[in-house]
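idk why but the lab printer keeps eating my pages so im just putting this in chat instead. protein + P-hydroxybenzoic acid:
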Amino acid sequence: MRTQVGIVGAGPAGLFLSLLLHRAGIESIIIESRSRRDVEETVRAGVLEHWVVELMQELGLGERMLREGHFHSGITLQWNRERHHVDIQGLTGGKGVTVYPQHEVLKDLIAARLAQGGEILFGVSGAAFRDVDTDHPSIAFSRDGAPEVIACDYVVGADGFHGPGRQAIPASLRTEYQKIYPFGWLGILTNAKLSWPELIYTNQQDGFALLSTRSPEVQRMYIQCDPADDIANWSDARIWDQLQIRLGTDDGWTLTEGPIFQKGIIPLRSFVCEPMQYGRLFLAGDSAHIVPPTGAKGLNLAVADVLVLSRAMEAQFRHNRRDLLDRYSAACLRRVWKAERFSWYMTTMLHKNLHETDFEQRIHFADLDLVRTSEASARSLAENYVGLPFD
Ligand code: PHB
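predcted complex ->
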């Protein structure tokens, strides 16, 4: 097999990239270790920055997102049993975010790419990048037990945190920056009616909770927990109890409960790999950087990477200009570090961290109160929340 751009990973980075490349007249093949069903059903976060919504529409993928997604013009922050509305739209000159789950985005992207005649090979194993520091890189893998190779002009590791992409950059040329948080998120999906028109991010008593939504009938909620805890320790009654405590107010508001049909615990991590390229290999999305989910930047950051990469590839293939590809990593990392900063800020401000001093805990509440009292602070949060402009 041969293609111009070989991509490992059919997540948001790989799929958006193949659609953007197709629009620019550049061929690609995606290989993916999971089945199509797995990719389309894994529950992840669900907030799209305003420019991602516009990009989906530009790519002809806006129809279902606009019908089933929900535009949010603000968010609610809560502490001391009081709520504070942040008018994201007013603070950003009209921008907002759209709540549309990642796996729904992936279904739309896969269907669109296959309809274009694009190749996505699901369920392959043993993907490995070869000769990435030469002019003829390739991707080796097995399909149904038989070895295969895709010869490429360029290769892309859109293969997540645990994929082979990052490891294909020699360790001596790579610097990794990491922070592991001493807490995780317990996430649930419940068949319940909407309890509040906005997402609520709260830091109260035992720590963080997030009230989010999927549809008028299905709600998504999270609570801070020990990342090493066993989900078996969390009965539905205990989960509702904690959600009621952490989201509780003194103004008569009630949280509508319902049957919980999905629950799980995820750890929280911040991670960046520098550089994001080596020879003819480019990393995009989680293979190069992870953010904790407070602020929902993961998918958006992956799409930002591949927008930069697709423009650089277009300059190379159409105009024989290499400079944008050479600057890919530097261009992405400027945005990545700002999203890392914002996700860390939201995470530290909104969680109870028993490893911190009481002094530090108080500072986080001062940060929250600044958003309430200072328009500059609120605007900074809002600009980051909807997605910073590309520079
Ligand atoms: C979600 O709905 O899954 C979600 C929303 C906002 C976040 C993180 C996750 O910051």
